[in-house]
Design a protein that fits this description.
Number of helices: 11
CATH class: Alpha Beta
Number of domains: 1
Helix content: 40-55%
Order of helices and strands: HHHHEEHHEHEHHEEHH
Strand order of the largest sheet: 1-3-2-4-6-5
CATH architecture: 3-Layer(aba) Sandwich
Number of strands: 6
């Protein structure tokens, strides 16, 4: 059968249904086990990129203040951040960065800005107004060496003790907000109209604001805030000390109710 197609047809009719090699095949030998296919493995979740602090940008003083303040996790870090911050023009004429004084705890006093003595020494309320503030605090059982903490809205002395401009206040406010968050006070006492305007955003005169409880959000809670008269004002108007005394008594009662 020289015709391959005829040969193939003859083999099929004869019952040949598979090709046979030249070497014999042992069909009784044990076949190697069939390895089950591995199920598809889930792809590993990509690792999140490390969170980086916002870069400081030239010309964005408020944004840079927010970045520096937000990165601070302790009061020491916040102080270092403020001392490294060059975005406020007041710092160029100031002698020191006036950060804070006292013991962080239940009561936080916030004033306006450093004066001549504060700028020279580097601590808030160390002049005549500070001496009166110490007496005011002592009248309700507070002492900056034990259980009271003091800072200012502005941390560098404005020339000639003028009021800070809105831009200067905006450059300092990110540090103040972070300052309050790190101190976690139970109550805040605002000293004067400038502090009230920039902390709680009210523009009324201090004589209308004083003695009225307000609120300031710290994290997930609201902190009671009491505006009162600035000690420097009371040195000029001693007859109004009785009004500040009422405000301090209300603060003392509020603190006792919270403890």
């Amino acid at each position: 059968m020289s015709d391959p197609l005829s040969t193939l047809s003859w083999l099929v009719e004869a019952g040949a249904d598979e090709a046979i090699g030249e070497a014999p095949v042992n069909r009784l030998a044990q076949k190697p086990p069939v390895t089950a296919a591995r199920p598809p493995q889930p792809l590993a979740a990509p690792r999140p990129a490390a969170i980086k602090a916002a870069p400081l940008l030239s010309g964005d003083s408020i944004g840079n203040a927010m970045a520096l303040a937000g990165a601070a996790t302790t009061l020491e870090e916040l102080k270092a951040a403020m001392e490294a911050f060059d975005g406020c023009t007041l710092k160029r004429t100031a002698t020191n960065t006036v950060f804070a004084d006292g013991v962080p705890g239940n009561v936080l006093f916030i004033g306006e800005a450093p004066g001549r003595d504060e700028d020279r020494i580097g601590r808030p309320f160390v002049g005549r107004a500070g001496q009166l503030l110490d007496k005011m605090m002592a009248s309700i059982g507070l002492d900056r060496k034990a259980n009271a903490y003091i800072t200012n809205v502005i941390n560098w002395r404005p020339p000639d003790n003028r009021d800070p401009t809105p831009e200067e206040a905006a450059q300092c406010l990110p540090f103040l907000r972070r300052h309050v968050e790190l101190v976690e006070p139970k109550i805040i006492i605002l000293l004067g109209a400038v502090a009230a305007r920039h902390v709680v955003g009210v523009t009324e005169g201090i004589m209308k604001l004083r003695g009225r409880w307000m609120d300031y959000r710290v994290g997930d809670r609201m902190v009671p805030v009491m505006p009162t008269l600035h000690p420097a004002y009371l040195l000029r108007q001693p007859a109004h000390k009785k009004l500040a005394w009422r405000d301090l008594q209300a603060a003392q009662q509020k603190l006792e109710s919270l403890n």
